[in-house]
Structure formats: C-alpha cells, structure tokens
C-alpha cells in the first residue's frame, strides 16, 4: 500500500491532469456499462452500480494518498445550519415553481399527484422509487463532488493557476455527463445529427458552468442544495 501511495503522490505533483483524466476514465468505464450495457437507468431508474463504484474509488484514492476525508470536503462543520439553508432554498424554489405551474394550468383544473420520476430515463414510481432515487442521488453527490471538486481541484492546483484549475475540472465535469446525450439519441428522445448536437450542447455547457459554480460549496452544501433540489424536482403534477 505504501508503494502505491508513493506512486499516486508522485503523479499528483508531476502529472496532475493525466491523473485526473485517468480517475475520470476509470469511473467512466463503469458509467458506460451502467448506461449502455446493463441499462440500469431503464430498468431501475438509477445507474446505481457505477455510482457506488465511483464513490468507493474516491474513498480508496484518498486513502492511497494518505489524506483524511476532510481534505476533499467531507466535513461536518456547521452541518445543521448548512442543511437548514439547503432546505429553505430548495423549498422556496419548489413553492415558486409549482405556484407558477398552478397559475399557468389553472384553467385545466390540475391535481396534485405525489410521484417520483427519473428525468434522464423517464422511469416513474411511487414512494419506494422516490426513496431509491434519493439514495442514488446521495451516493452520486458524494461521488461526483468528491471526485471533481474534492480530488481534482487540489491536484490540478498544484501545477496550474486557480483559473486554469477551475476550467479544467469544469471541462472534465462536462465531459463526464456527455454519455447522456448519446443515450437520448439512441433512445429516440432526439434524432438526427442536429438533435444529437443540441443534446450535447444542452448537457455539456450547463455542466461546465455547474462545475465552476459548485467549487465554493462543501460536500454537504451540494448535497442539501444542488442535489436536494434535483431530488425534490422529481415530484411532479
């Protein structure tokens, strides 16, 4: 283990970008298997296998580097206030969003239906499925934020300026989400070269911006605010 740790530490200083790309590509292999081979998003509504593998990979890398989990943002300082802030922000967005939807659809006499839907695959279900989505998003939050913000930013910042570091990790974060564009194309959600290109832009550019925005968030803040909003937004009329 000490030999492996020394190799990781040496690579983190000499080739941080190469190491970051290798980490992402390793996790990407399981991600692609989940989406295109096992098709767990279609079967279960969550690519849970690759999320768990990615999370374990983050933990193993941190251990191999001989660093504490707090070094990549897994800290619990002020966790209650951060959680409450996330609840308030998320609840406010949900209330405003559904209030606007009610006003728009008022003439159609809309009914409130509590359900869960995976926005990527369109799989729907009841309360049990909602709990499963919640668990999947929690694991995904720790995996993605631990990898792209917690690990990559300190690695890249050892060699590059802060601006270059932020751009590189955001670029890799955008690339990480590109498989969904091809999934939409293969599933018929979009069609033709134009549709595929639009899907690539719709997925890639926002993820790059999110990758930059989330830099200042701790793991818990991201969990309670960003992913929390995505989870609650799965409740639909």
UniProtKB/TrEMBL annotation:
InterPro entries: Rce1/LyrA-like_dom. Signal peptide: none annotated. Keywords: Membrane, Transmembrane, Transmembrane helix. Residues 129-211 form the CAAX prenyl protease 2/Lysostaphin resistance protein A-like domain. It holds the Pfam family Rce1-like. The chain crosses the membrane at residues 16-37, 82-106, 126-143, 164-182, 194-215. It comes from the Bacteria. This is Type II CAAX endopeptidase family protein. It comes from Anoxynatronum sibiricum. The lineage of its organism: Bacteria, Bacillati, Bacillota, Clostridia, Eubacteriales.
